[in-house]
Amino acid sequence: MTTQGPLTSWLLSATPQALKRATTHPFLAAAGSGTLSKETLSQWLSQDRLYAQSYIRFIGMLLTKIRLPANTPSTETLVNPTIEQTIIDVLIDALVNIRTELHFFESTAVQYGLDLTAIPPDEGGGSGAISTTGSGSCPGFTGAICGATNNSVSQAESGEINENSTTNPRENLHNLCKSQGECQMQAGSEICSPPTGHTGTSAAPTTPDCEPCQPSRLTSAAPPEQGPVFFAANRITRAYIDMFMSAGSPGVSALEGIAVLWATEVCYLRAWRYAASYGKKKAAAGKADVDADGGALREKFIPNWSSKEFEGFVNRIGDVLDEMVGKMKGVEETEVLRARCLEWWKQVVWLEERFWPDMD
């Protein structure tokens, strides 16, 4: 261990102001005070659910980084598991927890009438929006109704639209996302949003909103028609998902991946502990049962996300992370990894602050 102390303590003290902003957001105060509307809660919860779904893939990627000892187990290892065994136990528990959490999301949403595919206004939601499944990270998805029929993206860029062709360029884009496992369209769907075809015969499509027909990629194009808005991960949720995929990639160490896992969980715990403090103030004022969301946060979500059980799980991850660092050999290598973990920590805190909806 270096003179900087345990890695977890060092990270928590590294960016105090950013951490405070990320875990004391006005959204959390409104959630704890019972003034958060059912609509706003639904919009945030729908994104948190997508985040949780990507968490499963992230944990799976971390599991592939752990190698159990090949030697025959001894009495000592049965009594005192190796660090690799402990890491696997924690990661498997994380998978079980998140699967339980997703069921919890769904059952609570049904009980309180929450919409898990709600679209916030800044993402095109509101009156006239269509809420359906899709993937914001899917290269074939744009949230518009254009179904241009041409042979290739290059033809679309040059304006050489072949209206007699039966090949939809978006299908090729969608095939890419399906092979990467990113698209969340319902089973049986062939493309990410329903094609309707061009209505004109000119070189410039009349609804240039699909990926190969965006106005920025055509020299001349008519103004886009506003099509239906599809539910998908918003920009910050996509950034979180991208970070998980990056932290779980082969070029990143298991220690860094565990650091990202711990960072997300400790921020989440601190955030909802802050929200819970407002609930206590509300109860003291005799207004505990008055909630704009019908009671979902006060009765279900906040007790779950601020519980002693969740705190114990977060501490287990932190203990494993500190133990991994403690077993490293060489001061220079240790300091390099601590610096990398600090960069991951800063990224998590930055995203966490922006994951909460604006309350203007």
Automatic annotation (TrEMBL):
SUPFAM superfamilies: Heme oxygenase-like. It comes from Penicillium subrubescens. It holds the Pfam family TENA_THI-4. GO terms for biological process: thiamine metabolic process. The lineage of its organism: Eukaryota, Fungi, Dikarya, Ascomycota, Pezizomycotina. Residues 196-205 have a biased composition (Polar residues). Residues 195-221 are annotated as: Disordered. Residues 20-65 form the Thiaminase-2/PQQC domain. This is Thiaminase-2/PQQC domain-containing protein.
